Amino acid sequence: MTVQESPEDEVAPPQDVGTGGLLRSSAVMAVGTLASRLTGFLRVTVIAAVLGSTALSNAYNTANNAPNSVYELFLGGVLSAVLVPLLVRADKRSRAEGELYGQRLLTLVLLVLVLLTVLVVAGAPLILDVIAGGMVEEQRAVAIAFLRYFLPQILFLGVGAVLIAILQARRRFAAPMWVPVLNNLTVIATGLLFVYVVDGQPTAETITPGETMLLGIGTTAGIVVQTFALVPSLLRAGFRPRLRVGFGSLGLGMIGRVGMWTIVYVATNLAQLFVVTNIGGAIDSRVEEVHSAVNYGYTPYLNAFTVFSLPHAIVAVSVITALLPRMSGHAADGRFGLVRDDLSVGIRLAAVLIVPSAVALIVLGRPIGLIIFRHGYYTAPNATYTGLVIAAFAVGLVPFSVFQLLLRVCFALQDTKTPALVNLVGTGVAVLVGIVCYLVLPYRAVMVALALTYGLNYVVNAVLTAVLLRRRLGGVDGRRIVGSLVRMIVAAVPGGVLGWLETIGVRGALGDSFAGALVSVLAGGVLVLGVFVALGRLLRVREMGAVMATFRGRLGR
After folding, report:
1. Nearest-5° angle of CA 234, CA 165, CA 147?
2. Which of 156, 166, 192, 263 has the smallest count of CB within 10 Å of its CB?
3. pLDDT value at position 219?
4. What residue segments make up the domains of the chain, in order of their start?
């Protein structure tokens, strides 16, 4: 029985091939993602403790984000939009043709990225002026130095994207979720070695070229290790990575047409990021002028985003990754009703964990910030402020995750024009509101406001994309999706209120100590989840039963 045929507001039980297979694949990936994200938190905590929340950490974080930005602009967005659908279609014709297609694509990407990497390393100062023109003097110099070490990551990000797409097309989901653990462990080791080498808290003025090189090479080494760790799984999947020419058979014309709109989409996202990083640089100078003890710039924004993205990465990304090859196959066969069913099931199952997670982050953001970031040179006021930004980001967690699923439906349909145009509207609204916030708000409130506008962006994107996909798919099962989301939110909010009251009481008794923050998070988390489960059953949130049955089954095994 498909979702469309099942009784209203019900989800097929886990043994159903569609839902059950999705849940099982998602659960496997979720475990790997959880491991990678937990070590990722440890990595962020180590780097934050080592560098603090200062102009130096802003320089490091801005530079470390640049390789992803440049890669996504020139190639990454195109690959993510078209790779899996194209590889699935090639594999449907024959496994041999799929392997040959993957080898040629890998060769082309490698050649393009070698050239791109050389160009961007040479143009590092210009790139910094674009992404963070507000930096001056010593901070700018050290950011450029970091950029020269970080930008070679572009090559390995691209190669890794192709390898991951090949694995996903062959239904091999585990390795891509686990290999980031090796990246995180490499950076953690680099941070600990940095602590051993450096005497006292480093600053943009005191860090030496050798210390910059240690951080730069160690951070990039993590991406290199992560990429090569995919090869054993690739070999087990029956794919032999070889260099092959004959790029004409790749369908470059179609890739170009699809990729053009993907570049528009990515460029729009990068425009928003550049607004944030430039505002962060401008705030750095204002904070320095008044000798503020708290960094209100880019570092708390980036660290908060890392926490905010955890529930999405564990739950929604796992569901998305399992769904995309399936939806691509249905789209290739013209079975759009099944694409619609996959979308509906994916959103509702992911929301079972996303909704209570969002409520928990909103009410527990402050103590979460203290637990994760109050270490080393990252002071309590900086950790507290980061927690406020976490809470602001969490307001947009549900629309963010919903839009990511809608986006993959567009990719499965090989439609990149729709999300590109939608994103122009949503991001344009968010950027305009963000700039106004920067101009009128006290600088200590700006990053909180920018985190809120990030969520506004995805509210607009999700609504517009759903309306447009409704015409393509003959509906998006909107009544059932909205009904389930409303019931989940109603079930989650009372626990959130109790959790918020609990944090006030614990803070009054234990203050901002680590113990107090830990008690707040543990007790608040139990309240949010416990009340959500109880009310969810009362309100007949049937998706909850499907998810819980799957996890009980995996725990039993």
Report:
1. 100
2. 192
3. 94
4. 1-22+294-557, 54-292
